[in-house]
Amino acid sequence: MASHEEQFKKLIAHAKEYGFIFPSSEIYDGLAAVYDYGQYGVELKNNIRQYWWKSMVQMHENVVGLDSAIFMHPTIWKASGHVDAFSDPLIDNKDSKKRYRVDVMLEDYCAKIEDKINKEVEKAAKRFGDSFDKEQFVTTNPRVLEYRQKIENTLQRMNKNLTENNLSDLKTLIEELEIACPVSGTRNWTDIRHFNLMFSTQIGSLAEDANTVYLRPETAQGIFVNFLNVQKTSRMKIPFGIAQTGKAFRNEIVARQFVFRMREFEQMEMQFFVRPGTEMEWYEYWKQSRIEWHKSLGIPAEKFRFHDHEKLAHYANAAVDIQFEFMFGFRELEGIHSRTDYDLAQHQEFSGKKMQYFDPDLNESYVPYVVETSIGLDRMCLAMLSHAYNEEVLEDGSTRVVMKFPPVLAPYKIAILPLVKKDGMPEKAREIMSLLQHDFMCQYDEKDAIGRRYRRQDAIGTPFCITVDTQTMEDNTVTIRYRDTMQQERIAISEIANVARKNL
Ligand code: GAP
Questions:
Q1: Which atom of ligand 1 is nearest to the CA of 267?
Q2: What is the β-pairing status of strands 240-249 and 264-274?
Q3: What pLDDT does 493 receive?
Q4: Which residues of the chain have pLDDT under 50?
Q5: Do residues 442 and 416 touch, judged by C-beta distance below 8 A?
Q6: CA 110 / ligand 1 centre spacing (Å)
Q7: How many angstroms separate the alpha carbon of residue 280 from the centre of ligand 1?
Q8: Are 243 and 53 in contact (CB under 8 A)?
Q9: Tens digits of per-residue pLDDT, 424-435?
């Protein structure tokens, strides 16, 4: 079996070959950590966005949408804390001149120890056979316990140092763990420095410093500064939420793992405004609601886990990640944060405008507390691509790559294939296409043998293939082939939409 790394390389190659995701500016050798979505990628992305929007806005009477601008007044980023505190701790290797994010470096170190634990478990499972009790082994085996302790100590010390901004002890930790640069192999490190992640540019005349604006590093601030505009014009009563999707930009230093960490990416965020003191209730509500959303797509539950933040962002009093098991391990897919009244109170102070809500039930005004859900759209695309990618050996010994997307997210839903290019079959297939294409993304394909056409549809994850054959010309029935099982059945043309809808 291919290693996870090889699998991941294959997925990236597949995404490019089949028009999901291309490296940006490829003919100029690309631009690091920036990607373009091709014809299937854009459909997948749109479907995820729509599935999120429906669940957050359409299905919640008390959540409304917003589309705020990317450029905002620069003081917003001062007020939000991003100018002073939105930075990563970086270290350079003096020999390779490579720059690394210290927290990522230490987390990678821990991930390697985690791999060692997994190897111990595998070895023991082989040794003990059926009588192997994994739970007992990992809680009692001295070597595993030692590894676990090492991970815990490392992460604890890292988080303490990050919280206290103790960069010198952070460097001592790297030295004590004898972490070497993967490129030069040496431990010749510079001191650790902070590096702000925001991109800046100028509005108007280049020369005037006062005209510096930032590309937003999160969509959330557009929601905060419009909180009263939306509340007043929608006559929303607390608790209520504002949702938006849109681009965000971060000058990520460790930009890698394909679309997992990009410099230009898209977020889907929702700020839920609540009465102070009720925020933990709503935090729990949204935590559950969001994990249910992920599971509703039919992805196995064990692919997800919650991970509480040990080091809280400057605005949060509680935070949890929903992690997904990507091909490179469990990583953050979505964050749920209890942001207190930090942002609104800061904007009130910096703008001099009241950011208060009059609560008619309490007959008093207050600055609401906020619970946020924030998921990266590109990261969700990667999660779905990773989940969907399957290589299967078929009964006849041949192989197929099939993208088993949840049908509701599949780029194209139905492929319409005339068996041969004659005897009226193409015309009949076009007729069926025009019946269905108002409601479903459909693709017509008449080129090559039917088997190859099925493979092409498998590779882009189309859940249903409709084949028009001789019998169709006689009785208006077609075969419908299901992507995952490859089973086929005969149904009437008039039934195609119902069958598809039921499965979607
Ligand atoms: N408003 C809160 C916020 O922005 P975050 O944890 O920094 O919180 C939220 O980001 C989500 O945005 C993450 O869970 C991730 O899915 C996505 N995200 C963050 N940085 C990203 C990047 N560089 N590339 C792709 N997605 C990213």
A1: 12
A2: antiparallel
A3: 97
A4: none
A5: yes
A6: 22
A7: 22
A8: yes
A9: 999 999 999 999
